[in-house]
Structure formats: C-alpha cells, structure tokens
C-alpha cells in the first residue's frame, strides 16, 4: 500500500509540472487564438537557462526561476513576431506550420550550441524526506508543488486584479472589441504570449530538477503533455488545463504500478482519448474563452 501512496505523491508532483506547462500553453492559445507546437522548445530553453544559471552562480532557485522565465519571455517575443503577428487574421494552418518550423530550428540550434547529449542537474535542492512510515514528500516535490501553486496564484491575481489582466482577458475574448476600446491588441497579445512562454520556461526548469537531467530534445514530449492537458481543459480554460495536467501526472504514475514504466506515455494518452470520447469538451463546462 505504501508503494501506491508513493506513486500517487509522485503523480501529484509530476502533475504539478504538467499543470504549469498546460497553463502556459493555454495562455498562449487564449491570447493568439492559435495552437502552437513550439511550446516544448520554450520549455526546453527554460531548463537550459536554469542549468547555466546554477552552473554560474550556484544553486539559487530564485535566480533559476528568473533566468528561465526571462529567457522564455525573450524567445516568446521572437516566436510571436515570426509565427503569429502577421497571421492572426489568416488561416490558422499558416501559424501552425510556422511554429513547427520554429520548433525544429530551436531544437537543432540548441543541439549545435549546447550539444546533443544529456546533461545532469543534480543537487539543486537537497532531497530530504518528510513523512511517516515511508509515505511522504521529498523536498524536491514540495518545492515543485509550492512553486507551481505560487505562480498560479500570482497569475490569477494578475489576470483578475490588475488593469493589465483586464486588457489581456479582453483581447482573449474579442480582439476587435478590445481594439475599439483603445487597447493595443498586438502589443497586449504579444505580452500575453510571452507570459505563457515564461511560465513554460519555469516548468522546464522544474522538470529538469525533478528528473535531474535535461537534453535538447526534451521539448517534444513536453509539448505533447502540455497540449494534452490543455485539450482536457478545453484549450482556453486555465483552471481546467491545470486539472488536466494533474490528472495526466496521476494517471501516468498510477498506471506504472500495474505495468512497466515504459508504458507511462501510453497511459496518459489513452486517458486523454477516453476522456474526449466521453466528454469532448474536456473538464470545461462549456466551450469558449475563459482566461
């Protein structure tokens, strides 16, 4: 029984990372109205930014978060300018193809600059154990969950308690109406896109810390998990996307209690398919914009 509880805790910790990925992905989709397939590489770049920050200044988690968020924000500007800005009123497949191309470019560029091999990210956080009878949380898991919860709360306050958040939600709901109200739609959409990328970058850092490794090709799987969790949330509902991320993490880890760990991804995507067959709109109560 202890083993099952331990896997449940692992699932919650991993699900927290998926939830942050999905939140970032959902913000991007909400402000642009377009699906992106370069989000995984943004997550990967956030992991590398934290890796080099830790190598340069020591294991300062706050600086790692700042570095991963900042680099992902800057890359978000580049992605928005190239893949979205000129195509917001065009067919969606044009931007989709651009993000696929940008994904390939960033992945190969990192492989050239940083190398194709796995890099260890060890001892960033002391892996002390807190629990009873073999069941409990490690410090890494607690830090991951606390970081995701803090960023999620901060995002909620920004979106609901600030003028910037009101502008961002207005652009998500109706770009033409927002423009008529005097909102700079292009600038606000770009800033919202960068915000989503920044959250993805921090998620990449947390993933590297959790698995204690990172590699230039880690973005492919990360993007698919973020996309799957966002689909479970209806693509534009942030709380439901986060719930989808937690569900994927729990399903994966509980699934490997019954079979080999190599089937981890199979359990996640089978759950996604079954969920969409039963409830096509995902966890969201109805389709529509809710950011």
Key terms for this structure?
two-stranded antiparallel sheet; mainly alpha; 291 residues
Q: Low-confidence parts, pLDDT < 50 over ≥5 residues?
A: none
Note the beta-strand portion. Answer: under 5%
The helical percent reads: over 70%
Give a short account of the largest sheet.
Answer: 2 strands, antiparallel
Furnish the topology, listing elements before pairings.
Blueprint: H1 2-32, H2 39-57, H3 61-84, H4 92-114, E1 119-120, E2 129-132, E3 135-138, H5 139-161, H6 163-173, H7 175-180, H8 185-211, E4 213-214, H9 219-232, H10 238-255, H11 264-278
Antiparallel strand pairs: 1-4, 2-3
Helix pairs in contact: 1-5, 1-8, 1-9, 1-10, 2-3, 2-4, 2-8, 2-9, 3-4, 3-8, 5-6, 5-8, 6-8, 9-10, 9-11, 10-11
Structure write-up:
- There is one protein chain.
- The protein has 291 residues and is mostly helical.
- It is built from eleven helices and four strands; from the N terminus they run ααααβββααααβααα.
- The protein has one domain.
- Helix 1 packs across helix 9 (219-232), helix 2 (39-57) runs antiparallel to helix 3 (61-84) and helix 2 (39-57) runs parallel beside helix 4 (92-114).
- The longest helix is centred in the first third of the chain and has 31 residues, at 2-32.
- The mean pLDDT is 86.
